[in-house]
Amino acid sequence: KRTRTLTMAFDELCPPTAPFFGFMGAAVALIFANLGAAYGTAKSGVGVSSMGVMKPDLIMKSIIPVVMAGVLGIYGLIIAVIIANGVTTPTSDGVTKYSSFTGFAHLAAGLACGLSGLAAGIAIGIVGDAGVRANAQQAKLYVGMVLILIFAEALGLYGLIVGLILTSKTHTCGGAQ
C-alpha cells in the first residue's frame, strides 16, 4: 500500500507570513530614523535656543544641526516607501508571490537604514548642542562643528545606501523579479 504525504497549501518559499517581515522592515526604517531625527532635532534645538539668548544674531547660522537631523527622517521615509511598494498583495485564494527571501531582505534594509539614522541622529544632537554653544563663545569652532556634523550625517547616508541595495534583492515564487 502506498502512503500519502500531506502537501502544504502554500509554497514553502513564499509563506503567507513573508509580507510581515517586509512591513516590519518598512516600519523599523521609519520608526528608528525618525527617532534619530527627533533626538537630533530636540538636542541641537535646545543648544540653539540656549545660545540664542546670549547671541541672537547667530541663530540662523546655528540652525544647521537641526536641518541635518531632520533629513534623517527623510532617509527612513524613502526606504519605507520603497519597501511598502515592494510588498505584493496576496491573491484572492490567499497565495502570495512575495518570498521569505524578499521579506528578510526588506527587513534587513529597514534595520540598516533605521538604525543608521538613529545613530546619526544621536551624534548630530550631541555635536549640534555642544557645537552651537561653543560657537557662541569662539567663532573659530564653526568649521570644525560643521565637519563633524557632515561625518555624522554620513552615517545615516550609509544606511540609506545599504538599504537601497538590499531592497533591490528580491525573489518571487513565479521566478526572479
From TrEMBL:
CDD domains named in the record: ATP-synt_Vo_c_ATP6C_rpt1, ATP-synt_Vo_c_ATP6C_rpt2
PANTHER family reported in the protein's UniProt record: V-TYPE PROTON ATPASE PROTEOLIPID SUBUNIT
Q: Manganese among the record's keywords? A: no
Family statement: Belongs to the V-ATPase proteolipid subunit family.
Name-wise, this protein is: V-type proton ATPase proteolipid subunit
Q: Which SUPFAM superfamilies match?
A: F1F0 ATP synthase subunit C (SSF81333)
Gene3D superfamilies linked to this entry:
lithium bound rotor ring of v- atpase
What top-level branch of life does the organism fall under?
Eukaryota
- Organism field: Favella ehrenbergii
Query: Has UniProt tagged this entry with the keyword Metal-binding?
Result: no
Stretches assigned to the V-ATPase proteolipid subunit C-like domain:
24-83, 107-166
Which Pfam families does the UniProt record give? ATP-synt_C (PF00137)
Q: Which Gene Ontology CC terms are recorded?
A: proton-transporting V-type ATPase, V0 domain; vacuolar membrane
Regions that span the bilayer: 20-42, 63-84, 104-127, 139-161
GO terms of molecular function: proton-transporting ATPase activity, rotational mechanism
As for membrane topology, the entry says: Multi-pass membrane protein
